[in-house]
Design brief:
Blueprint (H helix, E strand, L loop, with lengths): L3 H6 L6 E6 L2 E5 L5 E8 L9 E8 L5 E4 L4 H7 L9 H8 L8 H13 L7 H7 L3 H7 L1 E4 L5 H7 L17 E3 L13 H12 L1 H4 E14 L10 H4 L8 E7 L5 H6 L4 H12 L6 E9 L2 E8 L6 E10 L10 E9 L2 E9 L7 H14 L1 E2 L9 E2 L5 E7 L9 H9 L3 H6 L2 H7 L40 E7 L2 E8 L11 E12 L2 H16 L7 E3 L3 E7 L5 E9 L5 E6 L12 E4 L2 E4 L4 E8 L6 H6 L5 E8 L4 E10 L8 H5 L10 H9 L15 H13 L13 H13 L9 H14 L10 H6 L4 H9 L3 H19 L1 H4 L3 H12 L8 H15 L5
Pfam family, one: Exo_endo_phos2
Subcellular location: Cytoplasmic vesicle, Phagosome membrane; Early endosome membrane
Organism: Myripristis murdjan
Length: 855
């Protein structure tokens, strides 16, 4: 959650909060005076009351900021009159006993501080009074230097390997956060660097060897419960302590507060339970914790391995309603251990026995949308599958199909797990290559882990009497992985699920003494080759045409580049003159830049995707599917690639006013007519009276009113992407007469429609008035009366429909808070970025219209 809003509340009017990292704030005053503010906070900072200002450090000296691994003595020895190290900020941060976490946000924070630091270069007087003790330095692991190259990088280039002391890594407790220090300011790779990197990768067998390390993977759906028992039987079930722990939870907190604000006290409770349950024969350090609502992943390592962990990043993806809500989705941590890149994913996929297609869609969404950012924004993001090893765990929610509950229980009693597994949805989907292609799951020889009566080993005795299933699974992808065990843990009874664990032995690449010799030989060969040859490539084609592009329909074609030159080459799509990016916003080249070895080939996906930001201009004809890409070779020539196509206009991304003037489906209308209606003013004369509300809104709301008034979890459970496409086509073409798809798909289609409106139901011009009068019902009604007539009709129509839903809340489990949260974000959109306080005011505004007939 962005905590800058709370920090901004503590500042004066002329002061601006630029960026927040943990409790350290980078801020600028009106006079362009930059300072670091050191805050402490007891919990997630939402308002100014949640934070306490501890110290202020003015920024007035010239330096660069990196995260390194040097002790203070080494820093002092490496310092020169032109490169004295300033550690004042480090001292201040250490006073607050705080640490900057791993990740790109910390790097962005430090780079902002570095960018603001200007003025004097004579720092010698500051040095001796500000350098902290060596132990304090190693605790945080940050260095500040005026040199354009970090001392840690310069030391490495001289062949030195400087590592900090780890004596204080694990102090009085056996399980504490370790020093997450590693180099942050990585230099951007040029062609020469990429040549060396490529040759090193090709020859890694010459200077690396495999060493196996044990990874304990655990997954547990805790059903919103607090820890009631020791986790030792689960986490310490191995005779020897594992080298790594990757522990995932689902449904950590089922409260509405956790769902809407992603804040929960149960995070600390379960983290403490995990720390206390780790193997007692080793000391562990917490590397990273990442959580999305109730999905949490913790990554621990043995103390002795901590210094070999680097490049740690964490990301989250919500796959709930509209692909955003975090009640379903995934969290992931990626890291480098020695010379192997590893990614761990913890996911919670869609529920219910018949929703296996939705689970498949969730999996694909996670794979495509979960991306780890690079420090260099021009570099393409790192996806899950671009790692040496991928470890995937979680409540995948795949069930046992085609067998009744009594027969399943009988097979479990007989331990006939093979018959059960043959009817397992995940096994069937993997066999059909619908999901988890290339992944491996160990043999299942334990009984299903869901669903039990809480506090017992008894199968579900509720009215629903669910069929037992292996919902909780662990899979892996990659070479040199050996599974030692795969089991459930029946001793734990806190939840209606049983926890599952897997112990994997993973071969990790280690460096040996031949590395230096290999590196030097590669450099000599590149020196000999450089500047002798001009790079060139052959393109598979230079013209691409995308026919009948539709709203939110992903389209892609492949451009293949073959390096037919005598030297490796580096390519990049570059901006054209007077254009902000290398392509139009509806187009993406993936990857946009890269490296091709001599004789090698690279496939680039040219992807077209029209979303809510690009649809309005395409609908009206003001923009076309047309662009020219410029592919540049470093030290070589440029190639021009033509991208064209035709876009099918859609009601999605078309204004309410225009749709009210369209009595026929939008795709039956000439493009010129749509353009004229879009540009027509409100007071222009028209031959036909406009519709009261767009027919598309009426069709969706009427369908839901007739079929889904009692539908459980309406507007909270996502629909299927394929069904949305059918609904969109029906609205745009008028065929068929009635809407296809499930109730959940129609509900999500309605939300997407409102989200895609170029001007929201409450126009941007009235947004501020809505915030100002949100506490007064009469004033809120007055603002609504000021809406343009067609907007007012839509607002009142939707509010009336939602009130009908609330009358059936006993069946559909909806309440005022849920509907206000979901719909206020769509009906009252901010023209700028909306902060948390504004979100709450918009919800308060809309609540007045949901309770009118319920009081």
């Amino acid at each position: 959650m962005d905590q800058s809003v709370a920090i901004q509340e503590t500042l004066e009017k002329e002061e601006t909060c630029i960026i927040v990292s943990f409790a350290t704030v980078f801020h600028q005053s009106k006079s362009r005076d930059y300072r670091l503010f050191i805050y402490t906070h007891r919990r997630m900072a939402i308002t100014a009351d949640d934070v306490s200002l501890e110290d202020i450090i003015p920024i007035s000296l010239e330096f660069a900021v990196v995260e390194g691994e040097q002790d203070a003595d080494q820093i002092i020895r490496d310092s020169t009159p032109d490169g004295i190290i300033v550690l004042k900020i480090i001292t201040a941060i250490l006073k607050s006993n705080d640490m900057l976490p791993f990740g790109s946000h910390s790097r962005l924070f430090l780079s902002e501080v570095n960018r603001a630091w200007s003025g004097r270069s004579d720092l010698r007087q500051v040095l001796l009074s500000t350098v902290p003790a060596a132990s304090s330095w190693s605790y945080l692991g940050l260095s500040l230097s005026p040199s354009p190259y970090p001392p840690s990088l310069m030391a490495s280039s001289r062949g030195k390997v400087i590592r900090e002391s780890r004596d204080e890594l694990v102090r009085s407790s056996s399980h504490t956060q370790f020093n997450k220090a590693h180099i942050l300011a990585m230099p951007q790779f040029g062609l020469r660097d990429n040549l060396i990197k490529c040759e090193l990768l090709k020859n890694e067998d010459l200077y690396t060897y495999l060493e196996y390390f044990s990874f304990f993977l655990g997954t547990y759906n805790v059903n919103g419960q607090t820890p009631k028992e020791s986790l030792h039987p689960w986490l310490s079930c191995t005779p020897n302590p594992p080298d790594m722990y990757c522990v995932g939870f689902q449904e950590l907190d089922l409260s509405k507060e956790a769902f809407f604000f992603n804040d929960t006290p149960k995070e600390q409770e379960w983290m403490k339970a995990v720390s206390e349950g780790l193997h007692p024969d080793a000391k562990y350090a917490l590397v990273k914790l990442v959580r999305l609502v109730g999905i949490m992943l913790l990554f621990y390592v043995k103390k002795e391995h901590a210094e070999f962990i680097s490049e740690v990043e964490a990301e989250t993806v919500g796959t709930g309603i509209m692909g955003r809500m975090g009640n379903k989705g995934a969290v992931a941590i990626r890291f480098r251990f020695h010379y192997s890149d590893i990614c761990v994913v913890n996911s919670h996929l869609a529920a219910h026995i018949d929703e296996y297609e939705r689970r498949n869609q969730d999996y694909k969404d996670i794979c495509s949308r979960l991306q780890f950012r690079h420090l260099d924004p021009s570099q393409p993001p790192l996806t899950i599958m671009k790692h040496n090893v991928v470890l995937w765990l979680g409540d995948l929610n795949y069930r046992i199909s085609d067998l009744d509950v009594d027969y399943v229980k009988d097979l479990i009693t007989k331990k006939d797990f093979e018959t059960l597994h043959n009817n397992d949805q995940l096994k069937r989907q993997i066999d059909e290559e619908a999901v988890f292609v290339g992944f491996v799951e160990g043999e299942i020889d334990f009984q299903p882990t869901y669903k039990y009566d809480t506090g017992s080993d008894q199968w579900d005795t509720s009215e629903k009497c669910r069929v037992p299933a292996w919902c909780d699974r662990i899979l892996w992808r990659g070479k040199n992985v050996r599974q030692q065990h795969y089991q459930s843990h029946m001793a734990l009874k806190t939840s209606d699920h049983k926890p599952v664990s897997s112990l994997l032995e993973i071969g990790v690449r280690m460096n040996d003494e031949a590395y230096k010799k290999t590196f030097e030989e590669i450099v000599r060969n590149i020196d000999k080759m450089e500047n002798e040859c001009i790079p060139s490539v052959t393109l598979s084609k230079r013209e691409f045409h995308f026919k009948d592009v539709k709203f939110m329909q992903h389209r892609a074609e492949t451009l293949s580049l073959l390096n037919d030159g005598q030297v490796p080459c580096q390519f990049e799509f570059i901006q054209k003159p007077n254009e902000p990016t290398y392509c139009k916003p509806w187009l993406t080249a993936n990857p946009p830049k890269g490296f091709i070895a001599q004789g090698g080939r690279v496939d680039i996906d040219l992807e077209v995707f029209v979303n809510r930001s690009t649809a309005p201009d395409l609908n009206s004809g003001q923009q076309q599917i047309e662009d020219i890409l410029v592919l540049h070779l470093e030290r070589g020539k440029d190639y021009f690639i033509s991208v064209s196509g035709n876009y099918l206009p859609s009601c999605y991304g078309t204004s309410i006013r225009t749709l009210c003037r369209l009595r026929e489906p939008i795709q039956d209308m000439p493009q010129e007519t749509i353009r004229q209606l879009t540009e027509m003013s409100d007071d222009a004369e028209i031959t036909e009276k406009p519709l009261d509300i767009p027919k598309e809104i009426w069709m969706m709301v009427d369908h839901l009113f007739r079929n889904a008034i009692k539908q459980e979890d309406l507007f909270q459970q996502p629909g299927l992407r394929s069904e949305f496409a059918e609904i969109r086509d029906c609205l745009d073409t008028g065929m068929p007469d009635s809407l296809p798809g499930s109730n959940h798909s129609v509900a999500e289609a309605l939300l997407l429609f409102l989200d895609a409106l170029p001007e929201p139901v409450v126009p941007y011009s009235l947004y501020q008035q809505c915030l100002e009068c949100c506490s007064s019902a009469s004033q809120c009604e007055k603002v609504v009366s000021m809406l343009p007539q067609c907007h007012k009709n839509v607002f009142n129509y939707l509010a009336a429909f939602l009130r009908e839903l609330l009358k059936n809340s006993a069946n559909n489990r909806l309440d005022v808070n849920i509907l206000a949260t979901i719909f206020a974000a769509l009906l009252l959109r901010s023209p700028t970025k909306q902060d948390l306080a504004e979100k709450r005011k918009t919800q308060e505004f809309f609540q007045h219209f949901l309770v009118q007939d319920l009081c």
